[in-house]
Write a structure and sequence with these properties.
Structural class: alpha+beta
Strand content: 25-35%
GO molecular function: holo-[acyl-carrier-protein] synthase activity
EC number: 2.7.8.7
Helix content: 10-25%
Number of helices: 4
Enzyme class: transferase
Keywords: Transferase
Protein name: 4'-phosphopantetheinyl transferase Npt
Radius of gyration: 17 Å
């Protein structure tokens, strides 16, 4: 599914059924030694997907460390993003010489828990949600797009980005029943200076997909 919202040049892999014999990479086991079973499975599953994507890029299937705020530490010359939710794990990776940053996120296609929307959205975003009349759970789509925005932002800035610091607008290109697809635009509301000395970040453009009970969002920055 995730490959449908990623451009050419980005390698991806996803895991819906969790193999019972799937084990952590030996060099990663210490990172989850004290984790509960669900956390272990999410960690192992997402990194398993990452190694499949590394192989697709022609890179060695190495251990993937954990950096500040839990961000994955990619091999030199690689950018990427991981995501997981109940029943789904995925990774998207690319060569750094081609793409600057990647952010992906997955969520179940269900309404946000009561009381969450106000804490993760801006007033104009809530106004849009109220005006759509869509049968899709666009509140969760908004949350999913905010998560992808943060994941694309963090590797370039190593600074926190709050939910209120990006204004997201959506285009719905196709919608039928409980599925849909389209694009989104994340306007950054804070200065976007980056650690690599590149062009400051002003906004991100992404794509979204709702299918088979999941919401998927992806940002790939040139």
């Amino acid at each position: 599914m995730i490959e449908n919202i990623l451009p050419a040049g980005v390698a991806s892999a996803e895991l819906l059924e969790y193999p019972e014999d799937l084990k952590a990479h030996p060099a990663e086991e210490h990172l989850i030694a004290k984790a509960v079973e669900k956390r272990r499975r999410d960690f192992i599953g997402a990194r398993y997907c990452a190694r499949l994507a590394l192989a697709e890029l022609g890179e060695p299937q190495v251990a993937i460390g954990k950096g500040e705020r839990g961000a994955p530490v990619w091999p030199r010359g690689v950018v990427g993003s991981l995501t997981h939710c109940d029943g789904y794990r995925a990774a998207a990776l690319a060569h750094k010489m081609r793409f600057r940053s990647i952010g992906i996120d997955a969520e179940p296609h269900a309404a946000l828990p009561e009381g969450v929307l106000d804490s993760v959205s801006l007033p104009p975003e809530r106004e849009w949600l109220q005006s759509t009349g869509s049968a899709l759970h666009l509140d969760r789509l908004l949350f999913c797009a905010k998560e992808a925005t943060f994941k694309a932002w963090w590797p370039l800035t190593t600074r926190w980005l709050g939910f209120e610091e990006a204004h997201i607008t959506f285009e719905i290109q196709d919608s039928s029943g409980t599925s849909g697809r389209g694009t989104f635009h994340s306007k950054l509301l804070v200065p976007g200076q980056t650690n690599d000395g590149g062009v400051p970040l002003l906004s991100f453009d992404g794509r979204w997909l709702i299918t088979d009970g999941f919401i998927l969002t992806a940002i790939v920055l040139d």
